[in-house]
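Z., the sequence and structure:
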Amino acid sequence: MSERKAWRRLLVEGVVIVGSILLAFSVDAWWDRAKTLAEEREVLSALHVELSSNRQTLDRASQQIEEGRAALERFLVLSPSEVGELAADSLAITNMFRRTFYGGLAAGFVDAAIQSGVGDTELRAALAEYARLLTAVENSWSNTDDLSRDAMQLLGRHRGLQDPAAVVPDSSLWQEIRSDSVLVGVARAKWVYWGSQRDDGERLSKHVDALLSLVESRLRIS
């Protein structure tokens, strides 16, 4: 009888030990999961702030691109004499075509989210596509796009200057540019190029909107 009691005691003790171990594992797993979710939420929150800021930058850039294209359209419909009258204020007409709209798009938390594997398959795929579109826009917008600088350099070459960049804006410069078919071609090419930059920005903006919605839904769930 005493032997049976000893076996029962050993069995109970074994069950208690196994149960304690399993409970400890469960607690550890729960804690790790809670820690992972907290870290993921932190990344998602920072990502949301970054995306929102980039969306505002894209809106400003889009507006400035449209302003540049509108100014260029105005220039192209004016006659050379009308351009000459407008060019009396040489700085004003020069600034019509000097655009430095690109303020830089942040990507730090996007990279961190991709590297950490945050979120589910849908979110990770959306982040990868965002990174691709972001790279395309940065490549398109990386250089200051200054039609006045390009036109003056080309005009300098036409004038046979050793340093085409040394062309100084004067009241007749834009009239001369408007009268030159080659330079007008440069202006038209710029108008098309700025349109492609606008389209790149709009594609990225739409994806940012969709990505923001995804991030917000994941934040609500977590």
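The mean pLDDT is 75. The longest strand covers residues 98-99.

Let me know what you think.
H.
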